[in-house]
Specification:
mainly beta; 3-stranded antiparallel beta sheet; about 0% helix; about 45% strand
Length: about 90
């Protein structure tokens, strides 16, 4: 009938995305002088990519907001003499 309808919401329950699943790293590769890897993700979740040279102290390599179920991370400064280890942390 094309009549306008107005309603008031007096309350609502926020439903979170649920518990975050851990990211899994896959497909490590070199491409055009960059080290790349994919990781599984959940849409609209935030992830922190960390790197280490000794597996005891970690630094942030980047932040990613997932827009797909698989995301790709590129390390542009990976051409070093020391080994590098990577991990991806799912943020709340």
């Amino acid at each position: 009938d094309n009549q306008e309808v107005e309603f008031v919401i007096k309350g609502f329950d926020f439903v979170p995305l649920g518990p975050a699943r851990p990211a899994h790293l896959t497909q490590p590769r070199w491409q055009n002088g960059q080290f790349l890897f994919d990781f599984t993700s959940q849409f609209d979740r935030r992830y922190q990519v960390q790197l280490s040279t000794n597996l005891s102290s970690w630094q942030i390599a980047g932040m990613v907001l997932a827009t797909n179920s698989v995301m790709t991370f590129a390390e542009t400064d990976a051409m070093t003499t020391s080994p590098r280890f990577y991990r991806v942390i799912t943020l709340p």
